[in-house]
Write a structure and sequence with these properties.
homodimer; Creatine Amidinohydrolase; 33% helix; six-stranded mixed sheet; alpha+beta; Creatine Amidinohydrolase, Chain A, domain 1; three-stranded antiparallel sheet
Chain lengths: 371, 371
């Protein structure tokens, strides 16, 4: 693990030196980026890459004894802030100035205005520049070890969902079912849920990000669930919709088949070189043709990894193309106010046709089950 | 509930108008502040108080149907961003400009540099000013309804911990015990844990914020646990240390009694009008006298509420005084590298002597139990 993190930091250094010169230091504050570059998941830890190859992880004073990098690598120094209650980022800025840096590239999409001002005050000689989303771009294509972690997260998620489907659902509340799913994720080895589990029944079904309520599952309902495990920091997502009772009604079958066809179109488009907006377009087009184009949200999917919502977004205005080994979700849904609706979410990895095409990580069936 | 939120917003309006004039609009982005002022816990929602008494909650496009305020109050308009994938804060800034505002007070301690710039671009005629921590100050003293929620959170926490103490602990891992505690919190009605549950055994015991590992509980260990329930958004904290096996050894008894005495000194100092640094001083003084002053972190406690770490901090450089109805933790700890240590955390509400003095919410015993 240590070598992986060292290599990632070297790549970042090279990119930054190319833009900012040899005397440019880099400050990483975004939690997922610190973890990606060091392996450390200590809350509040920040990473400084100073000129001369010194890398320092600054961890909060009261967590310092626990702050050794996960890998125990020697190239990464761990230290506490200069003052016990000082922000580690302020300590890092002062360190950068002392190490001879003339500028410090910071994550303006992560630092608050107040914190940015505190850095400028702590190291007045240092020019603060913007790192933009350099590390996020570096995180976009995953290595096979990262994909393996996502694969395990998906297996755990499939197990948890599979067990729930074998139990009695009628009469139980959304909240109760969501809690049970989260427990099962942990039973099967997840660090925790990748995001708040959504369980939506009746009129709620098909709503994106629905927070579970005390509504009970009833005969004839659509039931949509959306969950994912976090494993070694990596997060996946699955969404499925079921019908409760003996047999689905005609409108339910029609809506389900439409969303299924839309989601399949999106999944099949996941090849290296495909524009992200093209995946969105082919998905959206199926729903448009069925008259439900307006029911779709702003995106039909997004990247996953150390965060549940990463680049690339699969949305109309996105200009980038898909790359090999980029994990994404495809998650179209239609919600009809007062009636409910259908969502189908999968996590897949973009792979070339020669390697068998897109790799589906979340393998729970997408047949319309009547439970 | 609706009246409470309306009243809170009116108070905020008055304060802001006093500083920024009648044409000053206010943008609230910090999650806990949006919840405090509207009751809404929709992720990504932002609140705009525009001139003329119009309050608007802007919720992400794909969550808009679920975005009705919890209370259903009519004075709060709910709307989606202008463009489906636009940041609600940008929409709110444009709304403020159209409503005739000449300035917009923003939470610089919450907005990132990048988001702040996007607001300035979206509404170029609007002067962006700093709201500082106005809402946090308003949240400091709790009303009896908020304290009731904290009291329930504490009851749930005590139940979960009490059940764990009745089970066999030797041979189980820190990670397993932490998961079991979190499940029990949920079983007893918590929305979730207030913060990541810490279970620390052997050499880890007494470490603040220790993340559970696969180390197993052994005979003779100190075992320290720190957990809390979240109930209606309100978060409490308890920490206890136990000895595993038949009887504690002498050094364990001595260290425990010292931390206990320090914590009691802090608890007893929680009266309206007491300087925050005085609570810290009396706690620290006991540990100093025992020779363990250096083992203490930068603060001996902090406020709790919709966030687990709120003002006031109980630390040496803090200048404010305690008020009636401010809930705080008192949580000194000593960790001896290689040997372990002791932490004792309680959540209490500051009350005047005439009302019986500080109200202890977390009532699990602080006797040194051998389990």
């Amino acid at each position: 693990m240590s070598d992986v993190h060292l290599l990632r930091r070297s790549r970042l250094r090279e990119r930054c030196a190319a833009h900012g010169g040899a005397a440019c230091a880099v400050l990483i504050t975004r939690v997922a980026n610190v973890r990606y570059l060091t392996g450390s998941a200590v809350p509040g830890a920040v990473l400084l890459l100073a000129p001369g190859g010194r890398d320092t992880l600054v961890v909060p004073a009261d967590l310092a004894p626990a702050g050794q990098p996960a890998s125990g690598e020697r190239s990464l120094q761990v230290r506490a802030p200069a003052a016990a209650d000082e922000d580690g980022a302020v300590t890092a800025a002062a360190l950068a100035a002392r190490a001879g840096a003339d500028s410090l590239a910071v994550e303006e999409h992560d630092l608050t205005v107040a914190r940015h001002r505190a850095l400028a005050t702590a190291a007045p000689g240092l020019g603060l520049t913007a790192l933009t989303s350099t590390v996020e771009q570096q995180r976009l294509v995953k290595d096979e070890e990262e994909i393996a972690a996502l694969r395990i997260a998906a297996e755990i998620t499939d197990h948890a969902l599979g067990e729930l489907l074998e139990s009695i659902l009628v009469g139980r509340t959304e909240r109760h079912l969501a809690l049970e799913l989260e427990r099962r994720l942990i039973d099967h080895g997840a660090e925790g849920p990748a995001f708040p589990t959504s369980v939506a029944t009746g009129g709620h079904a098909g709503l994106a990000g629905h927070l579970p309520t005390d509504r009970r599952v009833e005969e004839g309902d659509f039931l949509s669930v959306c969950l994912g495990a976090r494993y070694r920091g990596y997060r996946c997502r699955i969404g499925r919709t079921f019908v409760i009772g003996t047999a689905p009604s005609d409108w339910q079958i029609e809506l389900y088949e439409l969303v299924f066809a839309a989601q399949r179109a999106g999944r099949e488009a996941l090849l290296p070189g495909t524009p992200c907006r093209e995946v969105d377009r082919v998905t959206r087009q199926v729903l448009d043709a069925g008259g439900y184009g307006d029911a779709l949200g702003p995106a039909t999917g997004h990247g996953v990894g150390l965060e549940i919502g990463e680049d690339p977004r699969l949305a109309p205005a996105v200009m980038s193309k898909l790359d090999d080994r980029v994990p994404v979700t495809v998650e179209p849904g239609v919600h009809l106010p007062g009636r409910g609706g259908v969502r189908l979410d999968d996590t897949l990895v973009v792979r070339p046709q020669a390697d068998g095409g897109p790799e589906l990580l979340t393998i729970t069936t997408k047949e319309l089950l009547a439970l």
